[in-house]
Design a protein that fits this description.
By secondary structure, the chain is α+β, with helices and mostly antiparallel strands. Helices cover about 35% and strands about 25% of the residues. The protein starts with a helix and ends in a 5-residue tail after the last strand.
């Protein structure tokens, strides 16, 4: 046990289990021959007032001679008496006192009596609360020794022989160092001399092995009181010995459990919690301890109801914690993290199968034991002096997580039943922490899987942009946060770039991020302008907030307060349209290296609804670099946003570097410690399509224009060497132009774009959107969009800023095109 714990327990016993008692010594006739200051404090009489007088001075019932004689006979027959009696104070009032009268033996069989008493009103709440008080007065044997001024034994009772194993005739006339030589006896005599000199009672603890229990160490509390004669001179001292082993062990147990509450479960890591359990057990309870868990527990998976052998299969355990008083832990054949081999007859198998603890106070390594099947383990046990063993199942929510093993090697005292009870309580508390850590591991794995599945696995360059990214979690251990980004291909070679920040970390933030990312992708497929897209998201968040207002799970509202920046870049026009919802503006690096942060309309975070969303449009030359990021990159505890944005601008001012190199350079500007918030960085370098990749024609809205449109498309495909795509493209152009002539007004624009796919666009001035419907076999109309869908890879439509619309269809290019 640690020195601090030892000192705490000693002080507790001294203060609470040994209240200061009034002591008086009587001769065989009941005459007071010894008196203490504590007796004077209790009843008000000094040694001179009672010395040489009958005890009837302070015991009212002793005034009656017949009652006194009957009481004396009862004491002689029983060797003493204990109980509650009324004692008269010097001022005449009666005190309710707990008394204990012990018979003392001296040289030649002489008899004296020792009376000890304590005012019930002065007993502490602990000593007066039932079991402690009762043990002090009745159940616990009290050893009494009276010594003269030279510390020689003059009087003893029978109980002291049972406690220390020294016969009366060997003790009388001798000092303690003559009877029990050693450091312990010398220390006790030092205390005795201090009491003789000062007159101040003292309590000192010592350890001994009673003859009846030589294998079990006992703890005794010795209380010393100076005895005075009738002249008030020091006669000697009285020593009252009380076996406080039970109380001591109970307090040790409480202290260890208190340590367990403090030291076990400091993290939500299964392996660390297991190691904390082993570290606590050694050396407070054992010399060597191991914690072995079911293999699935560190992974966060649900533990099996039983880990014992099933279908002839042995349980699979993994060493999660190990500690020893010996450097290097030579007792353990397995290091932490390694699988543990259990032979078929090992007691751990029985514990795992039954769920009940196993105790072997004296470990038997002889023939006929389970060690016959494991000679290597038997050899280890003998080499390291392993002599006592406890195995406790680690159970949580009716499922077994593993086993904890406690072993003694150097400590000679074998484990007892109360040691097993203590071990079970410690393991029970550790099991709760382990189960919490296991569930956290499962949640972390779920959140990490969710985040990895939701974030882009690999960014692909397109005809519009070259891209690169970095993600850094504020919690380096879990790696799960609410930041997200995406690169979404749109029609006509355009691309959407988005970055967002959901409040918080963990699975709720990851789930909120997943919600927003899904909504953004869905709305992006509808080709909504950036500001209109943000309006739809904000409406959704506020609607979800209203639906979840009464929900107990506040994690559902994780998307409230989320920020986002959404941009659409068109490589044909080289224009980029952006809108943001409370998010930091992008950093734009011109081809010559100048970095700017455009003054975009701010907007409010989602769900707030204070500021409308507005879009801004910028024209970007080819090679312009866009940096989208979250505030964790520019804001730290040490400086504000302006400083962070300045540092970011300096790191990005290298237009000739590769995007991957730039990403690494930006991340290196962060402090070496983990960031205070998640960090996301998305870099995009713009590209543009050359005029040779596009062809545009303005056509009148009349039926005859369909043939013209087909001819123009065929001619352009021939110039691009895409003759194999003529039949399908002619049909697509015919259907789309026909629809525009029938259902729209004004001029028609036909545009073909060749990039990674072939895009065919038909634009008109009508805001009426096309609607694909199921036409019947004999219907003359309604088949157009269905035919187009069968010929192309993707198709759709989008509104333009001037109120018109564009209908488009994409086809895959031939492999060698």
């Amino acid at each position: 046990m640690t020195d601090a714990l030892e000192g705490t327990l000693s002080a507790t016993v001294n203060r609470r289990l040994m209240p200061e008692a009034a002591i008086a010594m009587l001769d065989a006739d009941g005459t007071v021959v010894g008196w203490t200051d504590t007796a004077q404090q209790l009843v008000g009489y000094s040694a001179g007032e009672v010395g040489g007088r009958s005890v009837s001075v302070v015991l009212p019932f002793a005034q009656n001679a017949s009652r006194m004689e009957a009481f004396a006979e009862q004491c002689r027959a029983r060797g003493g008496w204990s109980g509650t009696a009324a004692v008269r104070h010097r001022d005449g009032r009666a005190l309710n006192v707990s008394l204990r009268i012990s018979q003392l033996w001296g040289q030649g069989g002489a008899v004296h009596w020792l009376v000890s008493g304590t005012d019930n009103a002065a007993l502490s709440s602990v000593a007066n609360s039932g079991s402690v008080r009762e043990s002090l007065l009745t159940r616990t044997p009290v050893g009494v020794v009276v010594r003269d001024r030279e510390l020689r034994c003059t009087w003893v009772n029978d109980a002291i022989e049972c406690q220390q194993g020294v016969p009366r005739d060997r003790r009388l006339g001798r000092r303690l160092t003559d009877v029990l030589p050693g450091v312990e006896a010398e220390a006790l005599e030092v205390v005795m001399r201090q009491v003789l000199d000062s007159g101040i009672p003292a309590v000192h603890e010592y350890r001994a092995w009673p003859p009846a229990e030589k294998r079990r160490e006992h703890v005794f509390a010795a209380s010393y009181f100076r005895l005075q004669d009738a002249d008030g001179q020091a006669l000697g001292l009285c020593c009252i010995n009380l076996d406080v082993t039970g109380s001591r062990r109970a307090r040790e147990r409480l202290a260890i459990l208190s340590e367990a509450n403090t030291r076990i479960g400091s993290t939500l890591d299964v392996m660390q919690t297991s190691q904390e359990l082993a570290d606590l057990a050694v050396p407070l309870l054992a010399d060597y301890a191991t914690v072995d868990l079911a293999e699935t527990v560190p992974l966060g998976e649900e533990p099996p109801r039983c880990i014992g052998p099933a279908g002839g299969r042995r349980p699979v355990l993994r060493r999660a914690g190990v500690a020893s008083i010996h450097p290097g832990i030579p007792e353990s054949p397995w290091a932490r993290g390694e699988p543990v081999f259990l032979p078929p007859h090992a007691p751990q198998i029985s514990v795992l199968s039954s769920g009940r603890s196993h105790l072997e106070p004296m470990l038997d390594t002889g023939p006929g034991t389970w060690l016959d099947h494991d000679p290597a383990r038997a050899r280890t046990i003998r080499e390291h002096g392993i002599h006592s063993l406890m195995i406790v199942p680690i159970r949580a929510r009716r499922a077994l997580l593993g086993v904890a093993v406690f072993i003694r090697t150097e400590e000679p005292t074998p484990f007892q039943e109360d040691d097993l009870l203590l071990a079970e309580e410690i393991v029970t508390r550790a099991a709760l922490a382990l189960d919490n850590a296991r569930q956290y591991a499962r949640e972390h794995t779920t959140a990490l899987t969710l985040q990895r599945n939701l974030l882009p696995h690999r960014l692909r360059d397109s005809a519009a942009v070259e891209v690169a990214s970095r993600y850094l979690s504020a919690d380096a251990h879990t790696g799960v946060g609410g930041d997200w980004f995406d690169v979404i291909p749109l029609s006509s070679a355009r691309v959407a770039l988005v970055v967002g920040d959901v409040v918080g970390h963990g699975i709720n933030a990851a789930a909120g991020m997943g919600r927003l990312r899904t909504v953004v992708r869905t709305l992006a497929e509808m080709d909504l302008p950036p500001d209109e897209l943000l309006v739809h998201i904000d409406d959704m968040v506020r609607r979800l907030t209203e639906e979840d207002e009464d929900a107990d799970d506040l994690g559902r509202l994780a998307v409230v307060g989320a920020t986002c920046l959404y941009a659409v870049y068109d490589p044909v026009t080289r224009r980029c349209t952006m809108a943001r919802a409370g998010h930091p503006p992008p950093a734009i690096t011109a081809p010559h290296g100048k970095v700017t942060f455009p003054d975009l309309p701010t907007g409010a975070p989602f769900g707030i609804g204070l500021v409308p969303f507005e879009a801004a449009e910028l024209e970007l030359p080819p090679g312009t670099q866009l940096a989208f990021y979250t505030d964790g990159l520019i804001e730290t505890r040490d400086h504000d946003l302006d400083v962070g944005m300045k540092q970011l601008g300096g790191a990005l001012a290298h237009p000739d570097w590769s995007l991957e190199h730039l990403c690494s350079s930006v991340i290196e500007t962060l402090p070496t410690r983990p960031p205070s918030d998640d960090v996301t960085l998305l870099l995009a370098r713009t590209r543009s399509l050359s005029p040779s990749q596009m062809a545009t024609w303005d056509l009148p809205s009349e039926p005859a224009v369909v043939r013209t449109a087909r001819a123009l498309a065929t001619q352009q495909l021939a110039q691009w060497g895409l003759d194999r795509m003529v039949p399908s493209t002619e049909l697509i152009v015919s259907e789309l132009v026909t629809n525009a002539v029938r259902h729209a007004t004004g001029p028609i624009r036909l545009r073909l774009i060749r990039h990674k796919v072939l895009t065919c666009e038909i634009s008109d001035a009508s805001d009426r959107l096309p609607r694909r419907r199921q036409a019947r076999g004999l219907d003359e109309s309604g088949h157009g969009l269905s035919i187009v869908a069968q010929l192309c890879q993707r198709q759709g439509y989008r509104r333009t800023t001037d109120g018109s619309k564009t209908v488009w269809a994409e086809q895959e290019l031939p492999k060698n095109a």
